[in-house]
Amino acid sequence: MVKKYWLILTLVLGLSLTVGTQATAIGTTVDQLDGKQAVALVEDAFEVQRSLSEKPREKADIETMLSEYFTDEQVKGFMEENLYKEGNGYSAFGSDFASYYIPFYEFDKETKAGFADGHWYIWEERSGDEEGPVSTSKGEEVVELTVEDGKWKVSGISYELPSGLKGI
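^ thats the sequence. predicted structure below, dont judge the formating
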């Protein structure tokens, strides 16, 4: 009977630990985010932005969608710069140079995450390729995550990685 009790207890604890580590990054509080979750949050934010070109939506719906992943300042900037009236709603048409858009990351082993000065930074190296319709300069494309209202959110997109994270 004791063996059976310990077996059940072990299974329950194992299952609870497994389920607990599968939490998504959205809504993750300050002390719960790790590098993998930070990358997942950025990937989810990218998918939300991408989905805004699929069909026209009400501005309020777009704002709600973006607010789950982006700080208030980023949402405001994105909506001002990238929303266009289309039929009865609004759409956002992505571009390689559109402001406030998450870069087209591969989201693979080359995607890096680092924590510095209370922020998460997610980045990939730009190759400096000049093939195809778009050329890029060599360097990093960086997404910054900051805590707003107790949740990690995208707070900036730049080409500058904090010096403490270079070489990771």
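Residues 4-29 have pLDDT under 50 and may be disordered.
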